[in-house]
Write the structure tokens for this entry.
Amino acid sequence: MSPKTRAQLADALAAKGIPDEAAEAVLDRYTEVGLIDDAAFARAWVSSRQAGRGLATRVLAQELRNKGIDKDIAGAALADLDPAAEEESARGLVRRKLRSMGNLEPHVVTRRLLGMLARKGYPSEVALRVIREESAGSPAGI
């Protein structure tokens, strides 16, 4: 079982038919003894997803909202991200993808790379700059 947020556990208890008062008491006790820590969950989630999947702040914020993490807690976890590391992550994604795009037209390469970075949450100005800079010396040069 993977770590869960308080909201996810509350939903699971509700789905099992546990009365709200009992569920709240259990969740409060778990929080009190440290078994539920949404802040720690958010920090670990952001670190893991940014490093492993190369996701940008916007997508990470959406994922945390979907998991029921409070906006302030999510903001604190996302504040730990270094903008330079986020851009370097985008560069790594582009470099890896460019290796397999050598035989495509430059406009196709640009479109596909922009789409990939957009799905991962990178702002268009960052995506365009990174694509332009990284593809300058590649076989699929733009």
